[in-house]
Amino acid sequence: MEEVLKRLGPESSSRLLRLRREGWEKFNSLPWPLKTDEEWRRTDPDSFRWEPAGFDPKEALQVSFETPAPEWIRSGVIVTDLSTALRQFPDLMEKHLFRTGRPLGLAKHVSLHEALWRQGVFVFVPDGVKIPTPLRVRISESAGALAFFPHVVIVMGRRSEATLIDERIGAAGGGNPAFSDEMVEISVGEEGTLRYIHLQQWGENISEIYTQRTEIARDASFLNIHAALGAKATKAQIETILQEKGAQADLLGVLFGSDSQHFDFHTVQDHRSGQTRSDLLYKSALKDSSKAVYTGLIRIEKQAQKSDAYQANRNLLLSDGASADSVPMLEILADDVRCTHGVAVGPVDQDQIYYLNSRGLAPAEAEHLIVEGFFEQILQRIPAEELRERLMSELKRRLNGA
Amino acid sequence: MSGPLLEIKNLHVSVEEKAILKGISLTIEKGQVHALMGPNGSGKSTLSHVLMGHPKYQVTKGQILYKGEDITGLKTDARARAGIFLAFQYPTAIPGVSVANFLRTAMKARFGEGYQPKEFRKQLTATMATLEIPEDFATRAVNDGFSGGEKKRHEILQMSLLKPELAVLDETDSGLDIDALRTVAEGINRMRGPALGVLLITHYQRILNYIQPDVVHVFINGRIIESGGKELALELERKGYAPYEEKTQGERQEVPHEAGH
Ligand SMILES: Nc1ncnc2c1ncn2[C@@H]1O[C@H](COP(=O)(O)OP(=O)(O)OP(=O)(O)O)[C@@H](O)[C@H]1O
Ligand SMILES: [Mg+2]
Q1: pLDDT, tens digit, for every residue of A238-264?
Q2: Does domain B6-247 sit in CATH 3.40.50.300?
Q3: Which of residues 45-84 of B touch A (CB under 8 A)?
Q4: Interface contact B81-A375, CB threshold 8 A
Q5: ipTM beyond 0.85?
Q6: Counting Cβ atoms within 10 Å, is residue A334 exposed (0-12), middle (13-18) or buried (19+)?
Q7: Using a 6 Å cutoff on CB, does residue B89 contact ligand 1?
């Protein structure tokens, strides 16, 4: 395996190579998680078990991106695949790759990612550069791949501003059962603004581990819209660290499940400084026997006075077999803060159905319109018309059972 | 020769085992406006929802004939497509669904092949204008955060576009200021004609100054106690329901009647 580790990356840095080795050692020393572990009580860990025997480190993904306009390139904006970044910008990679700190949980899978990370995206917006049009990147599964370990690094300089649309697309026609173990690192510099839209449309052959960690500096703001439509099973951990005074985060999630899809999302709103604000809203609509698990932690540290934290999770169950578990968790160490959380799990409101029926809509049609409205509240915040419409028509298609 | 538009025959209705309507008979001819007046909790809205086919209300006895056919077993959406419309006393909010999208979908459902997508915008804008509804209203979510008056105007906007043959208006005049009342009443009057029958539920004879009823019914404790002309409404306004309630005293031990609140 040592050979495999060496062959994996073109990176020359001894730090990165050491990290791979350490990741590999940790991975081997840790047991696979058990159903009895707190973290895995609601999601079967066996769905995310991966054996390295026979691992072939060939390129398993296609990374594509829109090259920014020449004026932005001249300003120092970088949007490229990770392999190119490692070759062309070793210093930046040294400075930013694996620098946002280790995700809190999922130790076994995080270690595995640290050992085998390969392919991905690097986005860099220098200080003072504000890009009005969205940047776009996409990672697609190649048919036949069995395991992939994509890594995304997004760095926003001071007073920079950008919107990034980042997609995951499954191979056409499904494919073999496959495993994805992904990590996304984001840092937003002082007074910077990042809108990060992550659209997951893996095929239903993929089991996905997804960790995302974002650090937000003083007076910077972060909008995250995470849309999870695909994959057979997803275990995600989305950590947002409000590092300095004035940091703000709006964290929105859209989940749509059908068949036996399983989503498990854990979010962390970590307020480390005073006068920070985080506002989270995750919504899921679940058909057939799909299931969503949501656990959300708000942590407000002792020194983070005058912070606001909101968290809401709403789940619409569209059939008797669908289910949702929702668990809010609070760790509030400061005393002068505002914090609310709310959970809703239930079927579509019968009064709403009746009202629409009374206007001639058949029950199924009424339900579809209500679900569209349910998501519209989040989708309307996507700052790209074309994507918003594509996402809505995809949701409609899924609602109609196609 | 066609018969009456709506014929309710000895209708008994229960909600969760509790009898609410206790033998109602009522016939509305095409072109007529019937006003229904009665105290709080007497069952007026129950009647309106039964006509619309709300699944919660059980018809335990009697019949509802619409254009000569028994619709007791017909689902709500089928009744709507057949031309029955209910302006809700308490319209339901549908968050995230814009008024324009909602109305477009409803018109497609109501008119099927006859729906003309190209005409929709024009029709919507024109109808909104006659009801003095501002243009940005079309982009707001259905009944979500609407004021009481906005909800009622929105109900009449729907009625205007969906062109029902039978309209049940459940306290559409409640919560309207004087100008809004006139606008809404004019909106309803514009639709009056030989093809439309109206059941207008109200607490106040004021709206009847704008919309002349053909028949006024006094409705107490699940029954129509008296029917007459417009003068009945004026009399009610003067005397209240007390003289009529005496007539129903025999019912009291059966279902305790809550005095108006
Ligand atoms: N879904 C229900 N479940 C239980 N009771 C109900 C239900 N709907 C109506 N009722 C009861 O039936 C009675 C009649 O109610 P209804 O709403 O029809 O009265 P109303 O005449 O429209 O009153 P108002 O003038 O206040 O609008 C009331 O006692 C009410 O509590
Ligand atoms: Mg009522």
Answers
A1: 999 999 999 999 999 999 999 999 999
A2: yes
A3: 52-55, 75-77, 79-81
A4: no
A5: yes
A6: middle
A7: yes
